[in-house]
Predict the structure.
Amino acid sequence: MANQQLKIIVGITLVAYISACNTPTSKPKQNNQDTVVNLIVDTNHQVHLSQSLSFSADSAFAMIEKQLSFGPRVPNSKAHLACGDFLIERLKQFTPDVIVQPATVMAYTGESLKIRNIMARFNKEKTNRIVFFAHWDTRPFADRDPAHPKKPVLGADDGASGVAILLELARILALNPPEIGVDLVLFDGEDYGDAGGKPETYCLGSQYWAKNIPVPGYYAKYGILLDMVGARNARFCKEGWSMKFAPTIVDKVWTTAHTLGFGHYFIMKKIDPITDDHYFVNTLAKIPTIDIINHDPDIHPAGFGSHWHTLNDNIDIIDKNTLLAVGQTLVHIIYSESANM
Ligand code: 1BN
Ligand code: ZN
Protein backbone atom coordinates (compact mmCIF):
# COMPACT_ATOMS: atom_id res chain seq x y z
CA MET A 1 0.00 0.00 0.00
CA ALA A 2 1.38 3.41 -0.91
CA ASN A 3 2.54 5.42 2.07
CA GLN A 4 0.43 8.43 1.16
CA GLN A 5 -2.71 6.30 0.94
CA LEU A 6 -1.95 4.71 4.27
CA LYS A 7 -1.55 8.09 5.96
CA ILE A 8 -4.97 9.11 4.71
CA ILE A 9 -6.49 5.85 5.95
CA VAL A 10 -4.86 6.13 9.37
CA GLY A 11 -5.95 9.77 9.73
CA ILE A 12 -9.53 9.16 8.72
CA THR A 13 -9.71 5.97 10.74
CA LEU A 14 -8.76 7.92 13.83
CA VAL A 15 -11.31 10.65 13.17
CA ALA A 16 -14.05 8.09 12.45
CA TYR A 17 -13.05 6.07 15.51
CA ILE A 18 -13.16 9.01 17.90
CA SER A 19 -16.46 10.28 16.45
CA ALA A 20 -17.98 6.81 16.70
CA CYS A 21 -17.13 6.78 20.39
CA ASN A 22 -18.91 10.14 20.70
CA THR A 23 -16.29 11.33 23.18
CA PRO A 24 -14.07 13.94 21.52
CA THR A 25 -11.25 13.48 23.98
CA SER A 26 -7.62 12.50 23.80
CA LYS A 27 -8.47 9.19 25.53
CA PRO A 28 -10.42 7.11 22.99
CA LYS A 29 -12.86 4.76 24.72
CA GLN A 30 -13.58 1.33 23.32
CA ASN A 31 -16.66 -0.82 23.35
CA ASN A 32 -16.66 -4.60 23.20
CA GLN A 33 -16.41 -4.77 19.42
CA ASP A 34 -12.95 -5.29 18.07
CA THR A 35 -13.52 -3.92 14.60
CA VAL A 36 -14.62 -0.45 13.56
CA VAL A 37 -16.00 0.51 10.15
CA ASN A 38 -14.05 3.34 8.56
CA LEU A 39 -14.13 5.56 5.54
CA ILE A 40 -11.05 5.17 3.40
CA VAL A 41 -10.08 7.69 0.73
CA ASP A 42 -7.65 6.25 -1.78
CA THR A 43 -5.15 8.18 -3.90
CA ASN A 44 -7.80 8.63 -6.61
CA HIS A 45 -10.07 10.31 -4.05
CA GLN A 46 -12.48 7.37 -4.10
CA VAL A 47 -14.22 6.58 -0.84
CA HIS A 48 -14.47 3.00 0.44
CA LEU A 49 -15.77 1.37 3.57
CA SER A 50 -13.46 -0.92 5.44
CA GLN A 51 -13.03 -2.52 8.82
CA SER A 52 -10.13 -1.06 10.74
CA LEU A 53 -7.69 -2.89 12.90
CA SER A 54 -8.72 -2.24 16.40
CA PHE A 55 -6.91 -3.56 19.45
CA SER A 56 -9.28 -5.12 21.98
CA ALA A 57 -8.30 -4.16 25.52
CA ASP A 58 -11.03 -6.52 26.76
CA SER A 59 -9.38 -9.42 25.01
CA ALA A 60 -5.94 -8.48 26.35
CA PHE A 61 -7.36 -8.12 29.86
CA ALA A 62 -8.90 -11.60 29.60
CA MET A 63 -5.48 -12.96 28.61
CA ILE A 64 -3.96 -11.44 31.77
CA GLU A 65 -6.68 -13.10 33.86
CA LYS A 66 -6.01 -16.40 32.13
CA GLN A 67 -2.27 -16.26 32.92
CA LEU A 68 -2.98 -15.35 36.56
CA SER A 69 -5.35 -18.30 36.84
CA PHE A 70 -2.30 -20.62 36.76
CA GLY A 71 -0.76 -18.83 39.77
CA PRO A 72 2.78 -17.36 39.87
CA ARG A 73 4.68 -18.63 36.79
CA VAL A 74 7.98 -19.35 38.53
CA PRO A 75 10.37 -21.58 36.56
CA ASN A 76 10.35 -25.26 37.68
CA SER A 77 6.82 -24.92 39.11
CA LYS A 78 3.66 -26.73 37.90
CA ALA A 79 1.96 -23.39 37.21
CA HIS A 80 4.88 -22.35 35.00
CA LEU A 81 4.69 -25.58 33.01
CA ALA A 82 0.92 -25.33 32.57
CA CYS A 83 0.98 -21.67 31.59
CA GLY A 84 3.76 -22.31 29.05
CA ASP A 85 1.65 -25.08 27.49
CA PHE A 86 -1.32 -22.71 27.33
CA LEU A 87 0.70 -19.95 25.63
CA ILE A 88 2.01 -22.38 23.00
CA GLU A 89 -1.49 -23.67 22.23
CA ARG A 90 -2.94 -20.15 22.12
CA LEU A 91 -0.32 -18.98 19.60
CA LYS A 92 -0.87 -22.11 17.50
CA GLN A 93 -4.47 -20.96 17.02
CA PHE A 94 -3.11 -17.97 15.08
CA THR A 95 -0.08 -19.27 13.17
CA PRO A 96 1.33 -22.68 12.27
CA ASP A 97 4.83 -21.30 12.81
CA VAL A 98 5.36 -21.55 16.55
CA ILE A 99 8.87 -22.43 17.71
CA VAL A 100 9.44 -23.63 21.26
CA GLN A 101 13.02 -23.25 22.47
CA PRO A 102 13.67 -25.28 25.64
CA ALA A 103 16.81 -24.63 27.69
CA THR A 104 18.31 -25.34 31.07
CA VAL A 105 19.94 -22.29 32.60
CA MET A 106 21.70 -21.65 35.91
CA ALA A 107 20.16 -19.12 38.30
CA TYR A 108 22.36 -16.99 40.57
CA THR A 109 21.14 -19.18 43.45
CA GLY A 110 22.82 -22.20 41.83
CA GLU A 111 19.47 -23.72 40.89
CA SER A 112 19.02 -25.24 37.44
CA LEU A 113 15.97 -23.72 35.75
CA LYS A 114 14.04 -25.46 32.98
CA ILE A 115 12.80 -22.70 30.75
CA ARG A 116 11.11 -22.32 27.35
CA ASN A 117 11.26 -19.32 25.02
CA ILE A 118 8.29 -19.27 22.65
CA MET A 119 8.42 -17.66 19.20
CA ALA A 120 5.39 -17.17 16.92
CA ARG A 121 6.07 -16.16 13.33
CA PHE A 122 3.75 -14.41 10.87
CA ASN A 123 4.70 -14.19 7.17
CA LYS A 124 7.86 -16.15 7.86
CA GLU A 125 8.97 -15.88 4.21
CA LYS A 126 9.20 -12.05 4.34
CA THR A 127 12.66 -10.55 4.71
CA ASN A 128 11.38 -7.21 6.00
CA ARG A 129 10.37 -8.04 9.55
CA ILE A 130 9.92 -6.59 12.99
CA VAL A 131 9.90 -8.44 16.28
CA PHE A 132 8.09 -7.93 19.59
CA PHE A 133 9.18 -9.32 22.94
CA ALA A 134 7.73 -9.80 26.43
CA HIS A 135 8.56 -12.15 29.34
CA TRP A 136 6.10 -14.76 30.55
CA ASP A 137 7.77 -15.94 33.78
CA THR A 138 7.24 -14.22 37.14
CA ARG A 139 9.50 -13.38 40.06
CA PRO A 140 9.97 -16.14 42.67
CA PHE A 141 9.99 -13.71 45.61
CA ALA A 142 8.22 -10.42 46.34
CA ASP A 143 11.43 -8.94 47.73
CA ARG A 144 10.13 -5.35 47.61
CA ASP A 145 7.13 -6.29 49.76
CA PRO A 146 8.08 -5.78 53.42
CA ALA A 147 5.13 -7.92 54.57
CA HIS A 148 5.70 -10.92 52.26
CA PRO A 149 9.28 -10.83 50.91
CA LYS A 150 9.46 -14.62 50.39
CA LYS A 151 6.15 -15.14 48.60
CA PRO A 152 6.11 -15.35 44.78
CA VAL A 153 4.80 -12.45 42.69
CA LEU A 154 1.61 -12.95 40.65
CA GLY A 155 2.94 -10.65 37.94
CA ALA A 156 -0.24 -9.19 36.43
CA ASP A 157 1.81 -6.24 35.25
CA ASP A 158 5.37 -7.62 35.48
CA GLY A 159 5.06 -10.33 32.90
CA ALA A 160 1.42 -11.02 32.05
CA SER A 161 0.55 -7.57 30.66
CA GLY A 162 3.18 -7.64 27.90
CA VAL A 163 2.35 -11.24 27.00
CA ALA A 164 -1.37 -10.42 26.87
CA ILE A 165 -0.79 -7.54 24.45
CA LEU A 166 1.30 -9.81 22.21
CA LEU A 167 -1.42 -12.50 22.29
CA GLU A 168 -3.94 -9.89 21.18
CA LEU A 169 -1.58 -8.78 18.41
CA ALA A 170 -1.38 -12.45 17.33
CA ARG A 171 -5.17 -12.56 16.99
CA ILE A 172 -5.17 -9.37 14.92
CA LEU A 173 -2.26 -10.53 12.74
CA ALA A 174 -4.04 -13.81 11.94
CA LEU A 175 -7.20 -11.97 10.87
CA ASN A 176 -5.37 -9.24 8.95
CA PRO A 177 -2.12 -10.49 7.41
CA PRO A 178 0.30 -7.52 7.33
CA GLU A 179 2.59 -6.64 4.42
CA ILE A 180 5.68 -7.25 6.52
CA GLY A 181 6.83 -10.22 8.57
CA VAL A 182 6.18 -10.09 12.32
CA ASP A 183 7.63 -12.27 15.07
CA LEU A 184 6.39 -12.44 18.64
CA VAL A 185 8.84 -13.81 21.20
CA LEU A 186 7.87 -14.72 24.76
CA PHE A 187 10.99 -14.92 26.91
CA ASP A 188 11.25 -17.12 29.95
CA GLY A 189 13.53 -16.74 33.00
CA GLU A 190 13.58 -12.94 33.03
CA ASP A 191 12.81 -12.30 36.68
CA TYR A 192 14.88 -14.85 38.64
CA GLY A 193 17.64 -12.27 39.20
CA ASP A 194 19.59 -11.07 42.22
CA ALA A 195 18.24 -7.68 43.33
CA GLY A 196 21.58 -6.73 44.88
CA GLY A 197 23.72 -8.44 42.24
CA LYS A 198 24.69 -8.21 38.61
CA PRO A 199 22.08 -7.35 35.96
CA GLU A 200 23.10 -10.48 34.00
CA THR A 201 21.49 -12.60 36.74
CA TYR A 202 18.17 -11.45 35.21
CA CYS A 203 17.01 -12.05 31.63
CA LEU A 204 18.26 -15.65 31.41
CA GLY A 205 15.81 -16.60 28.64
CA SER A 206 16.58 -13.61 26.45
CA GLN A 207 20.32 -14.13 26.87
CA TYR A 208 19.90 -17.73 25.74
CA TRP A 209 17.66 -16.75 22.81
CA ALA A 210 20.00 -13.96 21.65
CA LYS A 211 22.96 -16.37 21.61
CA ASN A 212 20.95 -19.20 19.98
CA ILE A 213 18.24 -17.67 17.78
CA PRO A 214 16.18 -20.68 16.68
CA VAL A 215 15.86 -19.46 13.06
CA PRO A 216 18.98 -19.81 10.87
CA GLY A 217 20.18 -16.43 9.50
CA TYR A 218 17.50 -14.59 11.46
CA TYR A 219 17.06 -10.90 10.63
CA ALA A 220 14.66 -8.30 12.01
CA LYS A 221 14.81 -4.60 11.19
CA TYR A 222 14.03 -3.68 14.79
CA GLY A 223 12.47 -4.98 17.99
CA ILE A 224 10.11 -3.69 20.67
CA LEU A 225 10.08 -5.13 24.20
CA LEU A 226 7.01 -4.74 26.42
CA ASP A 227 7.54 -4.95 30.17
CA MET A 228 5.05 -3.70 32.77
CA VAL A 229 2.66 -2.22 30.24
CA GLY A 230 -0.70 -2.65 31.97
CA ALA A 231 -0.82 -0.61 35.17
CA ARG A 232 -3.13 2.29 35.87
CA ASN A 233 -1.46 5.65 35.19
CA ALA A 234 1.60 3.99 33.65
CA ARG A 235 4.36 6.31 32.46
CA PHE A 236 6.55 5.14 29.60
CA CYS A 237 9.67 7.28 29.37
CA LYS A 238 12.45 7.12 26.76
CA GLU A 239 14.72 4.53 28.37
CA GLY A 240 18.51 4.89 28.08
CA TRP A 241 19.51 1.68 26.26
CA SER A 242 16.63 2.17 23.81
CA MET A 243 17.90 5.69 23.09
CA LYS A 244 21.46 4.43 22.61
CA PHE A 245 20.67 1.48 20.33
CA ALA A 246 17.43 2.45 18.53
CA PRO A 247 16.63 6.18 18.92
CA THR A 248 14.68 6.35 15.64
CA ILE A 249 12.39 3.54 16.80
CA VAL A 250 11.78 5.32 20.12
CA ASP A 251 10.89 8.44 18.15
CA LYS A 252 8.56 6.50 15.82
CA VAL A 253 6.70 4.79 18.68
CA TRP A 254 6.37 7.88 20.90
CA THR A 255 5.27 10.06 17.96
CA THR A 256 2.68 7.46 16.90
CA ALA A 257 1.33 7.22 20.45
CA HIS A 258 1.00 11.01 20.67
CA THR A 259 -0.76 11.15 17.29
CA LEU A 260 -3.27 8.58 18.53
CA GLY A 261 -3.99 10.58 21.69
CA PHE A 262 -1.92 8.48 24.10
CA GLY A 263 0.62 11.18 24.99
CA HIS A 264 -0.28 11.02 28.68
CA TYR A 265 1.27 7.52 28.79
CA PHE A 266 4.22 8.03 26.41
CA ILE A 267 6.21 10.76 28.15
CA MET A 268 8.70 12.80 26.12
CA LYS A 269 11.44 12.44 28.72
CA LYS A 270 14.70 10.49 28.68
CA ILE A 271 15.54 8.27 31.66
CA ASP A 272 18.61 6.24 32.64
CA PRO A 273 19.22 2.78 31.13
CA ILE A 274 17.38 -0.25 32.54
CA THR A 275 19.08 -3.58 31.91
CA ASP A 276 16.06 -5.53 30.74
CA ASP A 277 15.69 -8.22 28.02
CA HIS A 278 16.20 -5.65 25.24
CA TYR A 279 19.76 -4.97 26.46
CA PHE A 280 20.74 -8.54 25.55
CA VAL A 281 18.82 -8.50 22.26
CA ASN A 282 20.75 -5.33 21.34
CA THR A 283 24.20 -6.43 22.47
CA LEU A 284 24.14 -10.17 21.69
CA ALA A 285 21.68 -10.52 18.78
CA LYS A 286 22.44 -7.02 17.41
CA ILE A 287 18.76 -6.28 16.72
CA PRO A 288 18.07 -2.59 17.50
CA THR A 289 15.43 -2.94 20.19
CA ILE A 290 13.56 -0.56 22.49
CA ASP A 291 11.86 -1.15 25.83
CA ILE A 292 8.38 0.17 26.58
CA ILE A 293 8.48 0.00 30.37
CA ASN A 294 6.59 1.79 33.13
CA HIS A 295 9.38 3.66 34.88
CA ASP A 296 9.59 7.27 35.97
CA PRO A 297 12.05 8.18 38.74
CA ASP A 298 10.42 11.62 39.14
CA ILE A 299 7.17 9.95 40.24
CA HIS A 300 8.30 6.82 42.14
CA PRO A 301 11.46 6.61 44.30
CA ALA A 302 12.39 3.19 42.84
CA GLY A 303 11.43 4.29 39.32
CA PHE A 304 8.96 1.46 38.88
CA GLY A 305 5.40 1.64 40.25
CA SER A 306 4.95 0.84 43.95
CA HIS A 307 3.46 -2.57 43.02
CA TRP A 308 6.76 -3.67 41.46
CA HIS A 309 7.98 -6.98 42.96
CA THR A 310 5.25 -6.94 45.60
CA LEU A 311 2.03 -8.88 46.11
CA ASN A 312 0.16 -5.82 44.85
CA ASP A 313 1.16 -6.76 41.32
CA ASN A 314 -2.24 -8.39 40.84
CA ILE A 315 -5.26 -7.83 38.59
CA ASP A 316 -6.34 -4.73 40.58
CA ILE A 317 -3.35 -2.80 39.24
CA ILE A 318 -4.34 -3.36 35.60
CA ASP A 319 -6.20 -0.71 33.60
CA LYS A 320 -7.65 -1.47 30.16
CA ASN A 321 -6.90 2.11 29.07
CA THR A 322 -3.17 1.45 29.49
CA LEU A 323 -3.42 -1.83 27.54
CA LEU A 324 -5.28 0.02 24.79
CA ALA A 325 -2.69 2.82 24.61
CA VAL A 326 0.17 0.38 24.10
CA GLY A 327 -1.72 -2.14 21.96
CA GLN A 328 -3.29 0.33 19.57
CA THR A 329 0.04 2.14 19.15
CA LEU A 330 1.68 -1.14 18.15
CA VAL A 331 -1.14 -1.99 15.71
CA HIS A 332 -0.47 1.31 13.95
CA ILE A 333 3.27 0.67 13.91
CA ILE A 334 2.80 -2.78 12.32
CA TYR A 335 0.33 -1.74 9.65
CA SER A 336 2.16 1.43 8.68
CA GLU A 337 5.37 -0.52 7.94
CA SER A 338 5.65 -1.09 4.22
CA ALA A 339 6.82 -4.40 2.78
CA ASN A 340 9.54 -2.54 0.86
CA MET A 341 12.93 -2.57 2.55
C1 1BN B 1 12.01 -5.56 34.93
C2 1BN B 1 10.91 -6.02 35.56
N1 1BN B 1 13.06 -6.25 35.41
C3 1BN B 1 12.61 -7.12 36.31
N2 1BN B 1 11.29 -6.98 36.41
C4 1BN B 1 14.44 -6.09 35.02
C5 1BN B 1 15.14 -5.30 36.05
C6 1BN B 1 15.80 -5.92 37.08
C7 1BN B 1 15.17 -3.93 35.98
C8 1BN B 1 16.45 -5.16 38.07
C9 1BN B 1 15.83 -3.18 36.94
C10 1BN B 1 16.47 -3.81 37.99
ZN1 ZN C 1 10.20 -8.07 37.61
Q: What stands out?
A: The first strand starts at residue 35 and ends at 41. The chain has a mean pLDDT of 89. Residues 158, 191, 193, 202, 227, 274, 276 surround 1-benzyl-1H-imidazole (ligand 1) (CB under 6 Å).
